[in-house]
Amino acid sequence: MLNPLQQDTLTEFFNIAMGRAAATLSRMVSEEVSLSVPQMRFVRRSEAADLIGATEDRVCSVMQTLRGHFAADAMLIFPETRSLEIVRVMIGDTLPLEDITEMEQEAMTEVGNIILNACIGTLSNLLDGDFTIGLPSFRVGSCSEILNGFRPALDELVLLLHINFSVERYAIQGYVVFLQDVAAFSSFVESIDRFLERAMNGAGAGM
How many CA within 13 A on the CB side of residue 44? Predict the structure, then answer.
């Protein structure tokens, strides 16, 4: 787990990332998009599935795999019942429903790509890390299937971020999830500590 300083630092990282993602989405849809400051917690994978799935039977997910300085499976998860509203935000509401449905996966993947890359890029810049990022993949299923389908035998600690995705006409709740094993998480914490050490040394040099 993280101490208070580490957690505050990580929260601020994701706050910066959400601001960048919101600005990109706003330019794409020509409307103001707000992504809330993430509510962050560390839970077991099975607990994350229960938390996300408490009110939703099925969800849409976009996943990208990080490898390098530290490894993780980064996922954006939205309720399936609200996914078409996200598509309408992306492409407008003038198309027939059947056309919107056909474009659902492409539009959701693009939203996921924007938000996840904002998170990953911010972490890479601030933590001075080097990553390779896999292509985004889209899945629909239950929360348990989505979160446990990749490595069902493991119930490791995961970083769960709860965000609100808001456009003037819509208010959509979503989650960003970083799935990491113990070794990867330890490397992640070490990166945060190195950032804090550089920041403190820089502050001391400026005095």
Answer: 7
